[in-house]
Amino acid sequence: MARRATPALAAVLLLTAFPDASAASGTAVPLRSLTYAVDVSTAAEVDTAGSGLRAPARLPQGGYVAGSITATGTGESHSAATQQASGTITIDVLQATSDAALVVDIAETTDVVTRPKVRITIARNGALFFKRTDAANLSDEEVVVARWLDRGFYGERPTEVGTAWTVDLSENGNSNVERYRVVSHDEHAVTLSYSFEERTKVSRSYAGTRDGSLVYDPAMEVPVKAAYEAIARRQLGDSFDTVRMAVKLSLRTDSFTKSPAR
Asked: Residue ranges of the domains in the chain?
């Protein structure tokens, strides 16, 4: 079975079963190769009511980082951990299907963790499909970049300032909405404001947001640069997890161009 991910914060990927769509050969020669520089700052906090202490939440970039833990006389506890990571995201486009989807291999390597290569099918509506066992291997920033590689992401929209649109991938009672607006443009690219909001159908269990900006090249159908801040909040029993992220992405190489990316 394969899994489908709407663009979700790495703390919790909302996934539903879907037939395996990652059928491209493991030895296929890439149609296109992209490399992004990535910088991620993460802060995770856990507040627990009642007796007992709980370790900090697992950081999206990998591993459990030791943080400070404090407790009050009522049995309430608070734990926190921070992490900085820098590295690259590599993407090999293996197949462009007849229904305008892309099959890609994506991997991330930073000074904190090396993530294994994951095969994703990017549907024209922005939904992502991958194997169930690969869910834990995808970071928030990988999911975001893959989402923006959707061949229909910008489409035939004008580049004039003020152009705006909403992408609603909500389903099964879960809310998942992106909003974009053109704030400037030049000969090659548009700069967009970007916001994202996600909430599970059980309103107290998970909620996530992103806010930032994206520079996108409509002709090359590729994100060039992005920066966003994300917050994910989740309740598990008497514990409340909060993960805050600041992410910067920049295209470094693109095999479709003869020189390094801008």
From this structure: 2-254
